[in-house]
Amino acid sequence: MTTVFDAGALIGLDRNDRQMWVRLKGLQNAGDVPVTHGGVVGQVWRGGPRQARLASALAGIEVAPLDQRLGRLAGELLGAARISDVADAALVVLAADGDEIVTLDSDDIAALAVIAGRHVELVRP
Predict the structure, then answer these.
(1) C or N: which end of the chain has fewer Cβ atoms within 10 Å?
(2) What is the pLDDT confidence band of residue 12, given thresholds at 50, 70 and 90?
(3) pTM of this structure
(4) How many structural domains comprise the chain?
(5) Strand 100-102 to strand 62-64: parallel, antiparallel, or no bridges (unpaired)?
(6) Would you state the pLDDT for residue 118?
């Protein structure tokens, strides 16, 4: 099982949310590397020393490129779902059956997962 982080998870890490840090450290201690993509990083990254915690967290998270392949797959999913959030669709594309997605946007992610045929667990950060 892979854990996929949406923007809400990264915001929690950036804001030093204890529950999110415990989740991240627990995954890392178990040898699991959480995943997100560059579009999600772009949603939360503003740079500067204020985001030192987020920079530290990102060092232990696999950040997939939102490249042409992932963009096309996300776009096809958006077309089928009639939803417009590329970042959410790309997260669902990254997820596999049995994975968990840590998100505050469970409604859109759930709808996209159903259309993609992904059986994922949605977890609040």
Answers:
(1) N
(2) very high
(3) 0.94
(4) 1
(5) unpaired
(6) 96
- Residue-level pLDDT at 89: 97
pLDDT one-digit tens code per residue, 13-52: 999 999 999 999 999 999 999 999 999 999 999 998 899 9
3-state secondary structure the chain: CCEEECHHHHHHHHCCCHHHHHHHHHHHHCCCCCEEEHHHHHHHCCCCHHHHHHHHHHCCCEEECCCHHHHHHHHHHHHHHCCCCHHHHHHHHHCCCCCEEECCCHHHHHHHHHHHCCCCEEECC
Cα separations in angstroms, 3 against 18, 52, 62, 76, 87: 17, 22, 10, 23, 16
* Closest listed residue to residue 109, CA positions, set 19, 16, 11, 5: 5
Tokens, residue 48:
């500067």
Residues 6 or more apart whose Cβ sits within 8 Å of residue 67: none
The CATH number of whichever domain residue 41 belongs to comes to 3.40.50.1010
Domain that holds residue 76: 3-123
